[in-house]
Amino acid sequence: MLGIVFEGCACRAAFHAGVAAGLAEAKMPIALAAGSSSGSLCAAGVAAGRAAELPSVWRALGGRSIVSFRRALWNRSIFDMSHLVRRTVRDALAGGDLRHGPGEALVVATRLRDLKPIVYSSREEPDLVEPLLGSCFFPVLYGRPVRVRGEWLVDGGLVDNLPLETLVARGADEVIAVVTSHEGTALKHPLRTRWRPHAAGARVHVIHPRTPLAIRSWDFDPERIARALDEGYARGREFAS
User: Fold this and answer.
1) Who's near 1: CB < 8 A, 6+ residues apart?
2) What is the DSSP string of 28-45?
3) Residue 195 has pLDDT above 90, yes or no
4) Which of 135, 87, 89 is nearest to 112 (CA)?
5) Nearest to 158 by CA among 218, 115, 106, 194
6) Measuring CA to CA, which residue among 198, 225, 238, 231 is closest to residue 59?
7) Structure letter (DSSP) for residue 221
8) 86 or 116: whose pLDDT is higher?
9) Residue 115: pLDDT band with limits 50, 70, 90
10) Confidence of residue 89 (pLDDT cuts 50, 70, 90)
11) Which residue in 54, 68, 91, 101 has its CB near the most CB atoms, within 10 A?
C-alpha cells in the first residue's frame, strides 16, 4: 500500500502542493496521506481527492497579510493565521467531513497536557477541520487555541514533523516523503533537524527540491509561492515518470 507524508514547513508547503498536483495528474494510487502542521493540510487535500486543486489554494493566499487589526478581537491576536487557515481549509475541503473520501488522511498534532503525539484519521472524524487547525496551532501566530474532545492541541511538528512511521503503522509498505530541503533531509522535530527519512518495514522515496527554495516559512509573496509550486509540480511529475 502506497502512502505519502508531508513535512510541516508553514508557507514552504507550496512545494508540497505542487508535488501533490503532479502526482495526481499522473494518477499515482495513493491510499494514505499523513502530515503535521502545514503538511497535514496537504495530506487532507490528497485524501479528499483534491490534490490537483491544492496549487490554486496556495496561489489564493498570495499577497495576503498575516496581520489583521480588524479581526484582532476574533483572532485573540493581531496575527491573522487562525482566520486564514480556517477559511482556507473550509473552502479547500468543501467542509470538513472526509470520511467517505477516496483516501485516508492521518493528521498529527501535539497533545498539550503531556506533549505527546495524537493522530486523527479522516475516516473517523466527522469534521477534520479542528484537528487540522490543532496540528498547525502555534502560540502567538495563532491566537485562538484549539480543543478537540477535551484535549488542547498545539503544532504537531513539536513531536513529529514528518510522521512517516504513522503511515507504516497504518499499513503502508511504500512511502513517498515530501520535504523542502534540497538535500533531502527533514526537520523531524526541533532537536532533530537534518533527519534522513527512513522507516523499518517500508520502502521510502524522498521528493525534494533540486535547489534551495526561495520562499520562507511565513512568506505570502505571490512570485515565490508560484516558483515553489512549479518546482514541486516538476518534481512530482519527474517522480511519477
Assistant:
1) 31, 32, 171, 172, 173, 174
2) ----EEEEETHHHHHHHH
3) yes
4) 135
5) 115
6) 225
7) -
8) 116
9) very high
10) confident
11) 54
Angle at 207 between CA 221 and CA 14, to 5 degrees: 20
d(CA 95, CA 37): 19
- Locate all alpha helices (DSSP H) within the chain, ordered by sequence: 14-25, 38-47, 54-60, 72-75, 81-93, 129-136, 164-170, 222-240
Place of cell 497579510: 65
Q: Which residue has the cell 527533514?
A: 186
In the block, residue with C-alpha cell 485562538? 144
53-79: burial string, b at 16+ Cβ within 10 Å, e else: bbbebbeebeeeebebeebeeebebeb
Three-state DSSP at 103 gives coil
What amino acid is encoded at 1 in this protein? Answer: M
Taking only the tens place, the pLDDT of each residue in 7-42 is 999 999 999 999 999 999 999 999 999 999 999 999
**Could you read off the pLDDT of 122-158 as tens digits, one per residue?**
999 999 999 999 999 988 788 888 999 999 999 999 9
Tell the residue number behind the cell numbers 521528493, with chain if given.
207
Alpha carbon 61 to its chain's center: 15
Overall pTM > 0.85: yes
Rounded to an integer, what distance in angstroms lies between the CA atom of residue 14 and that of residue 42? 9
Residue 141 CA neighbour count, 13 Å, CB half: 15
